Amino acid sequence: MPQTIPGETGEKLRSFRALLAKEIKVAFRGRHLVGVGFGLAIVLSATLGFSLAGTKVSERVIASLLWIVVMFSSSDTLSRSFAKEEDEGTADQLRLRVPMPSVFLAKTLANAFFVLLIACVVFPLLCFWLGVRFSALPLVGLLVLIGCPALSFAQGFVGYLMSRGRALSAAYPVIVMPVILPLLVCLVLATSQALAEGTFSINLVVVIISESLAALVAGLVLVPYIEEE
Amino acid sequence: MVASNLSKSFGSKMVFAGVSFDIEDEVWAIIGPNGSGKTTLLRIMAGLLKTSSGTMEWFDRKKKYEKFQLSGRIAMCSPDLGLYKEMTVFENARFFANLAGVPVPDFGVWGLSCHLEKRYQELSAGLKQRAKLMTAFAMARDVILLDEPEQHLDAEGKAILDNMVSSFGRLVVVATNNPWRDWRKIAQF
Prior knowledge:
- The complex is a heterodimer of chains A (229) and B (189).
- Chain A contains nine helices and no strands.
- With 229 residues, chain A is mainly alpha-helical.
- The longest helix of chain A is centred in the middle third of the chain and has 30 residues, at 100-129.
- Chain B has helices spanning 38-46, 89-100, 125-139, 155-167, and strands spanning 2-10, 13-22, 27-31, 53-57, 74-77, 143-147, 171-176, 184-188.
- In chain B, α2 packs parallel to α3.
- Chain B starts with a strand and ends with a strand.
């Protein structure tokens, strides 16, 4: 590995906690997460809710709408976070202090938290407007808890890559799509099963968890090599 | 820190070539006009940039350091390096002190005691520079690299900087086009 992690475990943990806290603080004080992330989530949910209220909508369509709104509302928070660090010169400050995989992991975990918060806005609103059965909500909630970190983990490495090749940043949604499409399809299928049948295929959850963890581990392994170049 | 025949080019543009030095704990200067490659050389010394040719050795000369393996030993203050604009002066200092495992710096020394609760983006250019210098000096263990450190500083700020540079006691490298002391030179472009 071209990168070593100096210090002891306690020191690493302290650094990592500081990085995580910084991510959350900077995101909530910046305009993007609150203005664009939550704003878009509420506007999209309300638009869909008012348009479809009183209409009989199939479970698969409801599930698709739920995850599409979450995905679009949260799609560029992570890539923006990486790009912002590069633009403002704080990325190099971090490079002088901590190994970049720690930064990558902290950003990805913080983003998972943000996606979860956005989902906490989107799901109740859409479930209310689209008349989702109350009995299905615990399972849908479980899928949200699994799906939001999974979406974040899957997007993390692409977001990081985009920040390193700034000319590519406009192409982020196009490049990230093949990575998250299988995940999104599995999430939609599992959610529609939960809404319709009150259960979901465990195989879908295994695919969701496996793909997102594989993407996360690939990111952690590849970040040092990309930094090296 | 030992460099042998360093050169750096970006594409077909050669920034500098044939730079060699062998420096130890003292204050050293890289002097040259704008665009001459001072910042590029400092970034190579910090391990943030690779050379196009030549070798760079840090600390333990038997060990081959890769980029970013120098984490925690070198601090740098440069116009290209910023602090978090959404965080206050105190929060920035505490955050970087936590990363470096050092105590929060003495804000009074840098004349920043009255500005602790101000967000970095609310500071004037001179105070931003003081905050960046304070953070760099607080984190520096072995080496501090300063790129145009006097930029935006008033007379008081320059006096503080001069005092900190003189009393650091380890390796300080200052890249400037206007050296305010007669330091030994690593390179004059």
